[in-house]
Design a protein that fits this description.
The chain is mostly helical. It is 68% helix and 0% strand. The chain is built from three helices and no strands. This is DUF3732 domain-containing protein.
Length: 81
């Protein structure tokens, strides 16, 4: 039945869109922190998924044992040394 197929496709599209938005949000958190530390304004154009992936790949990684209560700026400076 055509209507059932259309509904199924719409449901799959909705799931895919939610998946992309979820990935985007997960990528945005550390990138927004870097922007804040560097006093840069995060623009909506910066938030396309492709650009986010490139930014995420090119940012220095924060070690897993980074102390959560330490100022992020101090952690970033420690990474640069």
């Amino acid at each position: 039945d055509l209507e059932k197929q259309i509904k199924k496709i719409e449901t799959e599209e909705k799931k895919a869109l939610l998946g992309i938005q979820e990935k985007r949000e997960k990528l945005l958190v550390p990138i927004r922190q870097y922007y804040r530390v560097l006093n840069l304004k995060f623009l909506d154009e910066d938030a396309s998924l492709g650009k986010l992936k490139n930014l995420a790949r090119n940012l220095p990684s924060v070690p897993l044992n980074a102390e959560p209560n330490v100022d992020f700026n101090k952690q970033l400076n420690a990474l640069e040394k």
